[in-house]
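re: ur question from yesterday

yeah so i grabbed the chain u mentioned. its 114 aa long if i counted rite. heres the sequnce exactly as i have it in my notes:
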Amino acid sequence: MGSPLILIVDDSPGVRKNLSSFLTSQGYETIECSNAVQGIERFQEHLSSLELVFMDVIMHGMQGPEAMNVMRNIDGAIPIVLMSGDTFDDLDAPFLQKPFGRAEVIELTRVLTS
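ran it thru and got these structure tokens back, copy pasting raw so excuse formatting
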């Protein structure tokens, strides 16, 4: 069995790169997607090995919460973390406030994948 697989969906290349770097340094494998539609496609393709999704709330085209609902309809057991630089009180998912630090990402990942 390979390393735990995590999907990162964010329209910011810098956020994807930093998040992927944090996670791969801890032994996780990552798949990066720049939009929600691509994220849903990769979610379906890697369903059997996917352990966690990090997804931006506000993206071009389909928004994160809408994509999260599609993913949950496909498989509601895979945890999804929504991320944003804005503050939200009404999201039905764990939330990661941007900018975030390495320790915060690693701790949240460990909790949700254990």
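noticed a couple things. The CA atoms of residues 41 and 71 lie 10 Å apart. also The longest helix spans residues 13-24.
anyway ttyl
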